[in-house]
Write a structure and sequence with these properties.
The structure is a homodimer. By secondary structure, chain A is of the alpha+beta class. Chain A contains nine helices and twelve strands. In chain A, the strands form three sheets. A four-stranded antiparallel sheet of chain A has the order 1-8-3-6. In chain A, a hairpin with a 2-residue loop joins strand 9 and strand 10. The interface between A and B is large, with 43 and 43 residues. The structure holds a DNA duplex.
DNA sequence: CGTTAGGTTGAAAAGCATCAACCCGTGTGG
DNA sequence: CCACACGGGTTGATGCTTTTCAACCTAACG
């Protein structure tokens, strides 16, 4: 049917692994929605009547504490799914979801998701394996929050987001620095200072570009906290 | 069959919700194992040929960084399951598992688990919902690591572990303080100091007993960081 | 008894947050 | 076309939080 959908499906770790039957059951109910930066996809504690597959852009999942602070839970990239947990259980969403860049999203009714799981054991297994992968990521995130200090978490983040570009290793921050800071569990000011301190470790940060000039030096910083003395 | 098993099954969020058919398939292959404090249940990067249900005691899941530091990922209590993710995927374990108190564990071969999932769609769904609940806990943990400072995380921990006892609210730390500190993402020294500072907030800590003398005061501390000024 | 493991305490330093000022590119309205 | 305000980001000064390192305590145990 609509060409965007099948291309999108390939990138989604859930839909791309679903059987043809499940896809045919799911996709007719899929709607495509576009969100501008700052748009809310859904709100904490509202009924999870739909789940989402991110086709492009970035979406943050967060809670708001009464003092107004945001606690950033997760950041979703293209291909990621969210709202599935709550939709499967027919519960309210456990957090807010907000686009941090312009984003295109595939929206599926919760009811259809549940019916597909009920009708296709293979699809349940796909969801299960996907859920394990998400949990893996959460474990890694917890480990880094407990074991690394701010500058190391940032170094790790940069390494993960680096891309080669005409022989140079560049990092384009996927969203604004305030959000990066929240994701890494630090204040924006600390992020700014950490970034300048990384100049000593192979990172050159200019106005709106970050280049890794010495990948090994950056690596050494990351591995150092991880380096044996025995 | 063996009486321990059925009693245990009721407490386990996975097995208690499995169908009778799945239980009959699983339980004949279950073995009961006891571990002393400090015993390893399994090691990081070894083949996950079995998964575990904790019947009593406490088990920590952790990684070791080359410098010898332990990064504590999760602490499992009675009824919790671990190793399922890896066993389902036939992958190596993603962390070490070690008993922090004497522990009794139900051990199931990975093969039987996978066969049960393959044979019973309902069981896959139970696993899926369980996996969601685990992820919920990880989200909460991440939020608290990012948004709360050490003393608040400790206050929260104490509140979660408090039990009424002849009208008094007592907290018995389930395992040694070094492990509690690692779980909360702080150094043992910081835990010790945080605990004494909590004396100002309705917590009396003696030699090996902790009493919450003013539950509201403790609550106030936890909610404070969460308190609106708008 | 001496030893050891787990825990506490103190002093000093590092790390990070906070608050305020400031910078700069962008957009808006006079 | 300019003045201005605004959001995002940076910088500096300051203080709180947490770590680090060392010493010390105490209950348990051989």
């Amino acid at each position: 049917m609509k060409p965007d959908f099948s291309a999108a499906a390939e990138r989604c770790p859930v839909i791309s692994r679903a059987t043809a039957g499940s896809r045919e059951r799911l996709m007719p109910h899929a709607r495509l929605r576009d969100f501008a930066r700052g748009d809310m996809l859904y709100s904490h504690d509202t009924p999870a009547d739909r789940c989402h597959v991110l086709l492009s852009g970035w979406v943050k999942l967060f809670r708001v504490r009464p003092n107004g602070d945001e606690a950033l839970i997760r950041i979703q990239k293209s291909g990621d799914t969210f709202g599935i947990e709550e939709a499967m259980r027919d519960e309210p969403y456990r957090h807010h979801a907000c686009a941090v860049t312009p984003s295109r999203v595939l929206v599926l009714p919760a009811r259809v998701l549940r019916e597909t799981v009920a009708g296709d054991p293979e699809f349940a297994k796909v969801l299960l394996l996907h859920s394990f992968e998400v949990a893996d990521g959460l474990h890694d995130h917890i480990e880094s929050l407990k074991a690394h200090k701010a500058i190391e978490r940032l170094a790790h983040f940069l390494r993960d987001h680096a891309t080669r570009h005409e022989g140079r290793i560049m990092v384009t921050l996927p969203y604004d620095k305030t959000t990066v800071a929240a994701y890494l569990g630090m204040q924006p000011e600390s992020l700014s200072r950490a970034l300048s301190r990384l100049a000593q470790h192979g990172v050159r940060a200019t106005k709106d570009q970050i280049e890794i000039t010495d990948f090994d030096a950056l690596d050494a910083l990351i591995e150092q906290s991880t380096e044996g003395q025995d």
